[in-house]
């Protein structure tokens, strides 16, 4: 029986404004790929990312260009060769996983040996702002055990100090989004270590991070923009201590699992992160993150409304997805 694909664009308002070093946004723009076979249907959500040259129209076109291959029964392994890594492949790959689970009656969690599933402690992200504003955000979320703090400006030491003073008991991840430079990284790292920071994400621009191999790492440094697929890892040895795996970068759960396993083999720590999307985008990542060192799957917590049904969040704990959502 031939498979049928449909593609929809959806928008979900963000609660307030989400700001990083590259700009701000007030809504999450997502694309849903649905692949049907008879009475069964699987879904996958992706978040096109402009920094990687992706647009809503471009990703939608890339998904629809696979219509015939999907109708002919392309599998996930062949999909890796048929499409490049990125949001479009992620949506199709996750839809195929979901469809396979619904047809076979075997959950994705069982298929990837992720059982028994457990709830995960996710980071909660604080947007970039002036130190006082960031302190207010931190104070309002000081009961959360893990905060992810967006930085990447000229006054980051003041921001780090303000957040740490406002949330003294929280573990903190700093995410510079490539916003530091060779001139300030050593001082910023040293101050982060003094403040007990747990991890620093992508301090320098991808491809211009060679200095990381020649300076001390008083705080572990995690690659984000510098790593998309498993093939990227060899060049990161000696520069980074951990990698942030996102389904939209890797191009789906299939590629993300390969990236995770290879990262472990090479001795990298593993963080599983996300773009700002709904519970449908987070669901497969929750399965991927079952043994992660750091989890950042707070996308739905940043939205004014999530899709229904969604994931269950209790404080900073996110529960595994119900099959009615995905998998």
TrEMBL record:
Superkingdom of source: Bacteria
Positions annotated to bind Mg(2+): 175, 201, 224
Record: active site: 150 (proton acceptor), 246 (proton acceptor)
UniProt cofactor note: Binds 1 Mg(2+) ion per subunit.
Keyword presence, tRNA processing: no
MF (Gene Ontology): metal ion binding; racemase and epimerase activity, acting on amino acids and derivatives
Family: Belongs to the mandelate racemase/muconate lactonizing enzyme family.
Coiled-coil ranges per UniProt: none
Annotated source species: Mesorhizobium metallidurans STM 2683
Keywords, comma-separated and alphabetical: Isomerase, Magnesium, Metal-binding
Name the UniProt record assigns to this protein: Dipeptide epimerase
Gene symbol of the encoding locus: ycjG
Residue stretches making up the Mandelate racemase/muconate lactonizing enzyme C-terminal domain: 131-222
Cofactor(s) the protein requires to work: Mg(2+)
Lineage: Bacteria, Pseudomonadati, Pseudomonadota, Alphaproteobacteria, Hyphomicrobiales
